[in-house]
Amino acid sequence: MALSRAVRCCLGGLSWIPVIFINLVVCWSYYAYVVELCIYTVANTEEQVIYLIVFHVFFFMFIWSYWKTIISKPASPSKEFCLPKADKELYEKEENPEAQQEILKRVARNLPVYTRTGSGAIRYCDRCQLIKPDRCHHCSTCNSCVLKMDHHCPWVNNCVGFSNYKFFVLFLAYSMLYCVYIAATVLQYFIKFWTNHLPDTHAKFHVLFLFFVAAMFFISILSLFSYHLWLVGKNRTTIEAFRAPVFRNGPDKNGFTLGFRKNVTQVFGDQKKCWCLPLYSSLGDGYTFPTRLVNADSEQGNVEHQAIKCTVDGQTNPRPLSESQNHLLGNDMHSEEHKDGSPANIEVCQPVSITMENES
Question: pTM value?
């Protein structure tokens, strides 16, 4: 027991190595740009001031969004998704998988759960001992189920999911801007040092290396940032992009797509002034998600939209389960009418989520 605890502590410490590496690179880049470039190399005072002001804006936003991604605790399912004590005992005693599924189905009828495993079974986490909400997955690294899990990122030593996905996208955006700004402003001095138009000083190494590092990181981050912009536009997670979510009537990779504008709003919120700031503004509660492609589940009971509390970014957000769906779907669906004034024939949709893990 003590040995396993020591191993876990060692692994926990090792998991911070990528974060420490990134912070060391950022600290060196700050020194190289501010001291070696702006103070020792740039001769024009006005140019120095402009370079430093813009640099510190990008630097501050990059660090802010990066650490918000790191320190934001992944949101986990609430106790409402755990099996009641009597059902849990029955489930653990039952050895027949079909009988276990019947127990899970009976409990799930009172929960807003609409997605299934690839075989059509209720998604249940044996480790956390709970029925997984839609788009929720178990992270073996964090050893917990994470709401709307996207992936576990070693560079932030955290799970990226419902509670911090906006911060992660902003982190990619500002790190890319940080790198491209450094590369663009260092380029002319890089050329001058390279062609020996500037004297060999201690700043030469820092300026030359700074350009290579900034350009290298920019290229690598650009591809990742473009991919996640595509995911946001499609309303998919990384897990869902590799394996389509499974609904009762089969898998559907576009099951959560509401249109580009609404997909972006679901991640960044409906207040555009907050889009560029690493402040929590995502819509929804992390348990249910609107979809325009799935009809009411015939096997699902009438789930009362009770408030399920979700703690995100230090704030408890008890929102009715249908609130985010009404907010996202309501505007367009209620405004689409025929020219003769009669309502359009629109299918009413139910909240649905997808599961992309291998289920046992």
Answer: 0.82
